[in-house]
């Protein structure tokens, strides 16, 4: 497994160009990651970076799928809400142990008016070859990219027993080992695309404790896995994307590229 240092100067240069066009992670951020007894679980949805971004309210149009998996058998239940709800997610029926919150958005689009923004975005996300492919395909400088976002969050009620599972998202992050228990050991994190492991694929892990932010980049091994040791009292956002050719059809605004974004959030308590 390869590990890359964070290039903060380059990172902030990217943000300064256009945060919405280039960097648009989508994640679930619970008000409390670990609840007890009769507490109502509440979570916000964000688009942005570094655990800072724009709030997304509940909308059936924007949220194509919204489910949670609860209990030992991870029973799948729909997340219901009202248009405009903030927090977007409100659940009263979480079961004891680990619960998985799952969100899939509908198709969205971003327009690039020059290749610099696209090149910076693709290099940051692990696709440095994309700009050359764009030119070889004689794609225009002004073009559309389509994208779909997939987000998970691991939360608990009355204890930390249980596990993450494969919820059959098109691109998905699966924490194979319980991240809340035996925190002195490395945990395996699997990245899948269309239910197949992504090999030698870039994954970023953002962690924060108080106001101290850390971003790390990794490549998956031959099994699509990275190994990571989580720290107590840290909040985590794991993310990865897949970039493929767009449909280039009218129904998809003639998008030349299509990206699929995966994220997973959780908080390791002091216990």
Explain the overall architecture:
This protein is mainly beta and 271 residues long. It is built from four helices and 19 strands. It has helices spanning 8-17, 19-22, 115-124, 130-136; strands at residues 3-4, 25-30, 34-35, 41-49, 52-56, 63-70, 75-78, 89-91, 97-105, 108-112, 143-157, 171-175, 187-193, 196-197, 202-209, 212-219, 225-228, 234-245, 257-268. The strands form three sheets. Strands 1, 3, 6, 7, 9, 10, 11, 15, 16, 18 and 19 form an eleven-stranded mixed β-sheet that branches. Strands 2, 4, 5 and 8 form a four-stranded antiparallel β-sheet that branches. A hairpin with a 2-residue loop joins β13 and β14 (196-197). It is globular, with a radius of gyration of 18 Å. The chain starts with a strand and ends with a strand. The model is unreliable at 1-22 (pLDDT under 50).
Features:
11-stranded mixed sheet, 271 residues, globular, disordered N terminus, single chain, mainly beta, 46% strand
Structural class: mainly beta
**Helical element count?**
4
Radius of gyration: 18 Å
Runs with pLDDT <50, length 5+? Answer: 1-22
Number of strands: 19
Helix content: 10-25%
- Mean pLDDT across residues: 91
> What share of the residues does DSSP label as strand, in percent?
over 45%
How many angstroms separate the termini? 30 Å
Order of helices and strands: EHHEEEEEEEEEHHEEEEEEEEE
Shape: globular
């Amino acid at each position: 497994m390869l590990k890359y240092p964070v290039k903060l100067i380059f990172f902030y240069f990217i943000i300064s160009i256009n945060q919405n066009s280039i960097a648009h992670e989508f994640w679930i951020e619970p008000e409390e990651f670990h609840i007890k007894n009769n507490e109502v679980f509440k979570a916000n949805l964000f688009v942005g970076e570094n655990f800072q971004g724009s709030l997304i309210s509940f909308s059936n149009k924007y949220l194509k799928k919204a489910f949670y998996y609860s209990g030992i058998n991870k029973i799948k239940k729909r997340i219901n809400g009202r248009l405009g709800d903030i927090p977007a997610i409100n659940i009263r029926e979480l079961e004891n142990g680990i619960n998985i919150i799952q969100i899939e958005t509908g198709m969205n689009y971003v327009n690039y008016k020059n290749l610099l923004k696209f090149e910076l975005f693709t290099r940051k996300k692990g696709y440095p070859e994309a700009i050359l492919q764009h030119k070889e395909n004689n794609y225009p400088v002004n073009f559309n990219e389509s994208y779909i976002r997939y987000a998970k969050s691991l939360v608990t009620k009355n204890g930390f027993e249980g596990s993450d599972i494969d919820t059959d998202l098109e691109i998905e992050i699966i924490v194979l080992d319980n991240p809340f228990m035996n925190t002195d050991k490395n945990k395996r994190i699997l990245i899948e695309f269309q239910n197949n492991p992504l090999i030698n694929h870039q994954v970023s892990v953002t962690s924060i404790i108080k106001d101290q932010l850390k971003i790390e980049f990794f490549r998956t091994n031959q099994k699509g896995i990275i190994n990571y040791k989580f720290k107590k009292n840290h909040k985590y956002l794991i993310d990865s994307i897949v970039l493929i050719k767009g449909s280039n059809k009218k129904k998809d605004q003639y998008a030349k590229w299509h990206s699929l974004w995966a994220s997973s959030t959780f908080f390791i308590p002091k216990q």
